[in-house]
Amino acid sequence: MFESLTEKLESAINKIKGYGVITEENISDAMREVRLALLEADVNYKVVKEFTNNVKEKALGEEVKKSLKPGDVFLKILKDELLSLLGNDKAELDLSKKPSIIMLVGLQGSGKTTTIGKLGNLLRKKNGAKPMFIAADVYRPAAIEQLKTIGKELNIEVYDEGQTSAVSIVENGVNYAKEHGYDLVLVDTAGRLHVDDVLMDELKNIKEKVNPTEIILVIDAMIGQDAINVITGFNDALPLTGTILTKMDGDTKGGVALCAKHLTGIPIKFIGVSEKLDGLDYFDPQRMVSRILGNGDIMSIIEKAESVIDEKEAMKTAKKIQAGKMDLEDFLSQLKQIKKLGPLENLLKLLPGARKLGLNNVNIDPKQFARLEAIISSMTIKERRNPDIIKASRKQRIAKGSGTSVQEVNKLLTQFEQMQKMMKMMKNGNLKMPF
Amino acid sequence: MGLFNKIKKVLKKDDKNLITYEKGLSKTRKSFVNKLANLSLEYDEINDNYFEELEELLINADIGVNTVMDFMDKLQLRVSKEKITDPSMLTEIIVDELFIIYVNDEILSNKINYNPNGPTVILFVGVNGVGKTTTIAKLASKLKKEGKKVLLVAADTFRAGAVEQLNSWGKKIGCEVVSDTNTNDPASVVYQGLEKAKLNKIDVVLIDTAGRLQNKVNLMKELEKINNVSSKVLPGSPHETFLVIDATTGQNGISQAKAFKEITNLTGIILTKLDGTAKGGIVLAIKEEVGVPVRYIGLGENQEDLQVFDIEKYIYGLFKDMM
Questions:
Q1: What CATH homologous superfamily does A100-283 map to?
Q2: Which of A112, A151, B259, B311 has the fewest CB atoms within 10 Å of its CB?
């Protein structure tokens, strides 16, 4: 996401480290590069100016001069300035009311409807909320069907009255939610331009009628310099309690993330990281800064793993690995767990130094996993526990059953055999880990 | 130079399209032009501060960073060479140079490349939420009014509600829609659509595809497959491939154009949502860096708000108040 920015910052840091001393000249050089990287990331022009000036000024200050390691001090200045742009703390949702009403607003195509689904799913899982959706996009053809499809998939009820008046739909919907014991109401509104007075009045009316706990602006992370106009436009009319940045899994540099809070005071609460319905993460400024500075985000990886991996199952496998007794059934269960982690590319990117190792551009074909799964699933339980008995005719049957070839079955068996050998070596203490 | 006079001649008053352009671009124009006009009022002479403010203005219009930097270099060179000191003279040069960047000595045609021997296939691609489906509906209604027999193909098999959305547009404008809820393979829907187009002697087939971020390799491969199927059923198709870009898009627009051009035979850009405050300046950089011209622009939510793109009118719309 911030790869080129990270690269430029790293090169600036290294330059400063190399000089051993910060001078007006070398800091200007370094910051010129940083400035271009920020502009190319669509960070607001004014913010870029302010940021580069602040960093420069502090870097030339007394504290740095006295320091024996100006590179480290420079790094600290960058970190502090980035944090002050992003806001130091995580911004939580207010879910204290019963029901809490969260209204999502935004331009057309920013991803409101999909985000409603993700948000409902996340808050149900993490906060134990009992969510209901209200379909108040009465303009875009099939918007209501889209929300209903998502609701059905998540098993979350959707309140709708077809394409009638958005204001009364929301009003009736909230009453319905109260009567039926829902404690969280998520309102999907139609996409609109912030300069469309008629439609902005509709939002104001909805707000008057139901007084939402949160009004959140959904912003496409690919937005350019117009971001500030959009945020202030919606905020002036409503005001907003937060923003959600969507499509952060693209190759966008997402500069809006760096300036939205700073320019408007409105915090970013979540970011959208995949098309799937679990692709929404809390926005954490500290972790974001760590990623921008190329230090990765291990905490997010661990959290992700914790949220999807069945601990008992994992312990069982770990014991088997230690005893050198893992079979293909355990392998299959591991594959299934890995699949739950979502696209592996996303996780690799969070590793410290991912860019240097080239892990930021890795592509993993999900079909590869599906093939392995199909091959093992086509084996009998006996074969999975004791792969040695798989000979020519069994291989042919397995290949046929899984729609693969005998070569592919062979490849899997050889790989598994090597894994077993490694595990036996581990058990005997003969294996030196490669790291 | 003399560009303004040229433009004025091109655009005689009662040009209906122009009025829509002006209306749609008025919000865009206001902020940009006011600032540019103020800039020449504010400064008695051209100096570094003037250039810095001008640079800020262009970057704020989302014109690509590289394009702006090159442009500023060129401008500064020209100013020193021609010894220009009066900022009011510079305004015209700025417009002139922007025009040159876009046109780049090419002859740009905005006519659809019709297939003389059967259905003309137009493929619509783009990232999520840029307005592909709505744009297809607008173009379909335009083509229908021209007397063409139009068929819509709902090949967005991924997003919930996408097929319904196209179906409901089809009903509204009276176009048949080919969809298949039994498959999630878009290439298969395209196959069915094109076979039908051949059989029913359709003039133009508009194919709606799922929004995909350009860095998702597997989704881009899917697009390749759609392309292959299309050219197998109707050799030489798709005859046009339009990348739909949202006017609020920043620097990422360049990466979008590059990635989609690699996979498809991109023949044009459709710039949507220009009726907001976003300026869509990234299209200048896309033309300069990737070589893909804008073909249509979307200036509103109505069916008639899709307009053939005309760079002269576009610049005129941006700078009208100054003339």
A1: P-loop containing nucleotide triphosphate hydrolases (3.40.50.300)
A2: B311
